[in-house]
Design brief:
heterodimer, A: 5-stranded antiparallel sheet, 3-stranded antiparallel sheet, B: 384 residues, Peroxisomal Thiolase, Chain A, domain 1, 2 domains, 9-stranded mixed sheet, globular, binds zinc ion
Chain lengths: 135, 384
């Protein structure tokens, strides 16, 4: 493991509900009550219609890989973890998340793969939503 | 191009500290580049009334600092930072300011001692705030990882290959062998690119831009001042800038950056079509970057960038001269490359490029990409 401290989320008023839910193993995604679109990352204003009428929904936990990269030379804090997969995944709730793909060989990951959320403990304020292939 | 009354022109360019600052600061290097550019134009710091710069780490008020160092009292200032494309955006802003009578002689500078100070890293450590809290904890190397995600998607959609990506580095290196200032001047092969260290798939070490020191400066002015300049003016025919997202997770279509928009507006303003461009300087932060730009700027169709770079050829023997300085991949890359795209385009249009001169270049394009494919800025230039 690296001696360098891993980057960890520092929750703010926008993101606190999201990160608090991760500690309970729950994935929350925002949506707009006016235009009904999904919003990620969490905000106070809808980026599609400027509404401030936003709500939190329980996500299905499922997603599809849009693209990914296998990291071989990592930022210093992650040097001990290579190779690992960072991906962009599309959720049925209409949002795209940057995440890790875990639970399989890095060489088995492919675009279009169905994946499902799990949570990797990190700090006392946040766990990281990672995704693994659907069995 | 008949009437230049309301036009603006680049009348001076200068470089300094490439690829090694030799102990000088980035402020010193920018001053040296500025003096070189002003001498090139036949002007002095006393003539400058507009100052433009961008910096990632030099100062929180970089245009004010550069002006102070050079003894310039500016009446127009712009420290717009949209990443590596900032300087193409500065050209547009300077052109608008000059046309509006807000300043008359604009100086654009950039400099960095990134190599000497070993300041480039792949990512953050410790607590991360704002939008970075949704990216950095997952270990994406930045900015490289963002471009790797786009490259992977491009390969998936269009069948683009690692060999096609490598061809960009190989052709660009061919130009660098002809540039005495270039950091990397040995001939490169596709096999060598593919055999270099994998950083984040599909990008190898030799798919990535260099880390060097260096500075550049440009002088832009009105047609009236340009009429008395030392060298033939290079006219700014068109410009456009655009941005769509800051972090890669917020990019809608990973293979279609905002160059679609910046390029369309620059070409429209210029009254020029992509197929009329004689020499193209297109930001090559990574080998995927110019492939995406070629497609979105209209030099080829979406998905055709890979075959374009192999079939047309972008090197000295190809039919599409691109990144004739050797680019960020082989010439220099002091953190941001945008200013060097413009300088090379100007020298090509003046016929000053020596062994790498594109014969009879009349129209040039300089196109910057910044951030995580976040920002685009396009400039169309014509020789006087
Ligand atoms: Zn809305």
């Amino acid at each position: 493991m690296s001696d360098i401290e891993r980057p960890a989320p520092q929750p703010d008023a926008d993101s606190a509900p999201f990160w608090a839910a991760t500690l309970e193993g729950v994935l929350l995604v925002q949506s707009c009550l006016d235009c009904e679109r999904g919003i990620y990352y969490p905000r106070s204003v809808c980026p599609f219609c400027m509404s401030e009428n936003l709500t939190w929904n329980l996500a299905s936990g499922r997603a599809i890989i849009n693209t990914f990269t296998i990291v071989h030379k990592a930022p210093p804090a992650f040097a001990g973890e290579v190779p690992y997969v960072v991906a962009l995944v599309d959720l049925p709730e209409g949002v795209r998340m940057l995440t890790r793909i875990v639970g399989c060989e890095v060489g088995d990951v492919h675009i279009g793969m169905d994946v499902e959320v799990e949570f990797s403990p990190l700090t006392d304020v946040a766990a990281l939503p990672y995704f693994h292939p659907v069995a | 191009m008949a009437n230049h009354d309301s036009s603006v022109a680049i009348v001076g360019v200068g470089l300094a500290g490439i690829p090694d600052a030799k102990g000088k600061s980035e402020l010193t290097l920018q001053a040296e580049a500025a003096v070189a550019a002003l001498k090139d134009a036949g002007l002095t710091t006393a003539d400058v009334d507009g100052i433009f710069t961008a910096s990632n780490d030099m100062s929180w008020i970089p245009s004010v600092l550069v002006a102070e160092y050079l003894g310039i009292d500016a009446k127009y200032t712009d420290a717009t930072n949209i990443g590596g494309s900032s300087f193409e955006a500065h050209v547009g802003h300077a052109a608008a300011a000059i046309a509006a009578g807000l300043c008359n002689v604009a100086l654009i500078t950039y400099g960095s001692t990134q190599k000497s100070r070993r300041s480039r890293s792949l990512g953050a450590a410790g607590p991360v705030r704002l939008t970075n809290q949704f990216q950095d904890p997952f270990g994406l190397p930045v900015p490289l990882g963002a471009y790797a995600l786009a490259a992977k998607r491009h390969m998936h959609l269009y069948g683009t290959t690692s060999e096609q990506l490598a061809q960009v580095a190989v052709s660009t290196r061919e130009w660098a062998t002809l540039n005495p200032l270039a950091k990397m001047r040995d001939v490169l092969t596709i096999d060598e690119v593919l055999a270099s260290t994998m950083i984040a798939e599909p990008l190898h070490l030799l798919d990535c831009c260099l880390v060097t020191d260096g500075a550049g400066a440009i002088v832009i002015t009105s047609a009236n001042v340009a009429a008395g300049s030392r060298k033939p003016p290079v006219w700014v025919l068109g410009h456009g800038s655009a941005h769509t997202h800051a972090t890669i997770g917020n990019m809608k279509h990973l293979t279609q950056p905002s160059s679609t928009d910046s390029g369309r507006r620059a070409f429209e303003m210029a009254g020029v079509r992509p197929d009329e461009i004689d020499v193209a300087e297109i930001y090559d932060s990574f080998t995927i970057t110019p492939i995406l730009s070629l497609e979105t700027l209209g030099f080829c169709g979406l998905g055709e960038g890979g075959p374009f770079v192999t079939d047309r050829g972008t090197g000295p023997t190809g039919s599409f001269p691109m990144n004739t300085s050797g680019g960020g991949l082989s010439f220099c890359h002091p953190g941001m490359f945008g200013v060097f795209l413009l300088i090379e385009a100007v020298e090509q249009l003046r016929g000053e490029s020596g062994d790498r001169q594109v014969p009879d270049a009349k129209l040039a394009l300089a196109h910057g990409t910044g951030g995580a494919l976040s920002s685009s800025a396009t400039v169309v230039l014509a020789r006087g």
